[in-house]
UniProtKB/TrEMBL annotation:
<dbReference type="InterPro" id="IPR015797">
    <property type="entry name" value="NUDIX_hydrolase-like_dom_sf"/>
</dbReference>
<dbReference type="InterPro" id="IPR020476">
    <property type="entry name" value="Nudix_hydrolase"/>
</dbReference>
<feature type="domain" description="Nudix hydrolase">
    <location>
        <begin position="70"/>
        <end position="208"/>
    </location>
</feature>
<keyword id="KW-0378">Hydrolase</keyword>
<dbReference type="InterPro" id="IPR020084">
    <property type="entry name" value="NUDIX_hydrolase_CS"/>
</dbReference>
<protein>
    <submittedName>
        <fullName>8-oxo-dGTP pyrophosphatase MutT (NUDIX family)</fullName>
    </submittedName>
</protein>
<comment type="similarity">
    <text>Belongs to the Nudix hydrolase family.</text>
</comment>
<dbReference type="GO" id="GO:0016787">
    <property type="term" value="F:hydrolase activity"/>
</dbReference>
<dbReference type="Pfam" id="PF00293">
    <property type="entry name" value="NUDIX"/>
</dbReference>
<dbReference type="InterPro" id="IPR000086">
    <property type="entry name" value="NUDIX_hydrolase_dom"/>
</dbReference>
């Protein structure tokens, strides 16, 4: 059975607040420019975009946008900020205000914005942390993320940007804001350590960031 689903907020609040496309039928979209600009190539069949990650990460929703406001690909950047304190590694995370768990600070790129600039902006907006010019940022290759809000016709990809603060005498103060309920430094000697730390406060990792954080934390 082919399931069709778009959350009511997309065409209601999403359109009125400007985070969702008004067009309700992807077959009326001119896909040529979007295909050319795609961070990760995808197909359009019979005027409908096809999620390139649907086979590895089935969404269960064939048609519609789920909880996402766009059709096809949307590009984000995530700030993966680590520090070494009290004999271990810590990762800065935020609790999302949509109930989908804890994630690295991040969000969608503005038009013409470079991934590293978007990561730095989202970090400041969601945690209040502004890092100095001496911090070195490394932008990793763009990657598909299995966002739980996605469908076979609407999905997310991200540019991860990493910054390590090295050994610190104390962890910088952070405060959740914008799209984040809370911001906190989480012990992150391994991905398993993050999961355990969040479980202690009744939290869990945002599904879209599980493989991202596992790759980051367990490779180092």
């Amino acid at each position: 059975m082919s399931i069709t689903y778009t959350h009511p907020d997309v065409l209601g609040r999403g359109v009125s607040e400007g985070w969702a496309e008004q067009e309700s039928d992807p077959r009326r979209i001119d896909w040529a420019a979007r295909l050319q600009a795609a961070a990760i190539p995808f197909e359009v069949i019979d005027g409908r975009p096809v999620n390139p990650g649907r086979n590895r990460y089935p969404t269960g929703i064939r048609y519609g946008r789920g909880e996402l406001g766009h059709w096809g690909e949307k590009v984000a950047a995530d700030a993966l900020v680590t520090a070494h304190y009290d004999g271990g590694r810590w990762l800065l995370m935020v609790e999302r205000d949509d109930g989908h768990g804890w994630a690295a600070p991040g969000g969608c790129l503005d038009d013409g914005e470079a991934p590293v600039d978007a990561a730095i902006r989202e970090l400041a907006e969601e945690t209040g942390l502004v890092l100095g010019d001496g911090v070195i940022w490394t932008v990793l290759p763009v990657r598909y993320v299995p966002d739980p809000r996605a469908t076979d016709e609407a999905w997310m990809v991200t540019w991860p940007a990493t910054a390590d603060l090295g050994e610190v005498a104390e962890l910088p103060a952070v405060t959740g804001a914008d799209d984040a309920r809370h911001a906190a430094w989480v012990r992150a000697d391994s991905y398993r350590a993050v999961v355990a730390a969040l479980a202690d406060v009744g939290g869990s990792v945002f599904a879209a960031h599980v493989s991202l954080l596992r790759d980051l934390l367990d490779e180092r």
